[in-house]
Amino acid sequence: MPKVQAKYALQTLRTIRRTKDSAPFLQPVDPVKLNIPTYFDTVKHPMDLSTMEKKLNADQYASVEDFVKDFKLIISNCIAFNGPEHQISEMARGIETTFERQMKNMPPPDQLEPPEKKSHKKSGGSKGGGGKKSTPSQTFALDPSGMPTIRRESVQSDGRPKREIHPPPPRDLPYSDVKPRRKKTAAELKFCDQVMKELMKKQHEAYAYPFYQPVDPVALNIPDYFRIIKKPMDLSTIQNKLKTNQYDNANEFEADMRLMLANCFKFNPAGTAVHNMGRRVEEVFNKKWAEKTAFIQSQSGSRSPVSASPPPEEEDEEMSDEDGEIAVLQKQLEAMQDQIERMKKEKKKTPPAPGAGNKKGKASGSGHARKSSVATPAPSTTSKKKSAKKVDEVPLLTMEEKTELSQRINLLSPKKMMYATQLIQDNMPNLAGDDEIELDIDELSPEILYKLHKYVTKHALQCLQTQNLPIRLLLHLQNLLRLSRRQLPGRRRTSQ
Question: What is the pLDDT of residue 415?
């Protein structure tokens, strides 16, 4: 029997010896001790587990079939002597089930034996050390990480190739370089951890061990490996990338796993031992990967719908919403500040008109009218007629002022917003009765735009004070609104 199969058969026997049903079959039957003098009259060829283990250690089995034949002999002897309904016969069928399950994973005879871990023993040298000759020190090239690339002679005295000496792993804790996993892909990356645990189990070691570590062309005597395989990959590298959260989603994990198997099939022709091991690893991976959807659904549905406090993810989302509102307000502030600076520059460039005093009086009068218009919630029909006569005196809003109006109207409280809506509906009867109004700002008449601009500019500051904004941001908003309010009266236009 090949050595790899004999080793697996020995492990199978030890597994069966640990079961509770194996007690009657551990040692040869003693007819005197058990008071069954007719045992050897019925059983002509006795067999037990300890005898099979001795034959395995002595390499007396020529094939796996001989090994299975001896185990079947134990079962048939038990049933023949005790009968099929006896308790001992039931125990024999129990260990037979375990044996058949283990034999399904029996490796093929041409499979390579997994490398054994060698224990490095410290060799004690002489105290004086005078017997050894001093060898001249050698210089070695530095690799990109700064460590010298130390290599021994390529071949040992017994003909085996030697490995490259790698520096020990750093002792620094890797916390600082590990980025946290994204909430959206945390469940699928957790499933990737489950897949790695499955592939690293002891039951798959017989055919998964070639993929545990990176390929060493020197140790395996395959110098052309990196000429054929441009992107090497192995299970230890994939596991390290999982631990350090280098995968953004499960698709990247699957791509690396498929790359590792593709490299195996590319370098090892079909029919070779390593190629067959790769196919078995691929079967295990595909079977486990098919459970991904069910695992993610079970993880997403594990949270209870009713809870006393919101989960941490929802709290983070609320915080992100608040940050988004603050960012929007900051952008509006920057736009308002740029607008005020442009207004200051234009005011410096334009010389004062000869009738400036009259304009100032009109401006103050319009300010007084602005106050009275806010005090009255609904304008009367007489005021509509007066305003219709003075259409030419209403200033036209610039594009900047219209943009400012569309930005500031969103800062009004619900109560103030109702008044602004009523103002639009009173002047546009076709919109009466609508709870929400959605229209282009250019559809409004100049007088409605002017009234809305005055109302929104006055009440935007009051609405800002009621919101939970940072103190610095609120003061900045107040200063900008006051500056813009001072600049607006001077921008009145007379009709041509």
Answer: 78
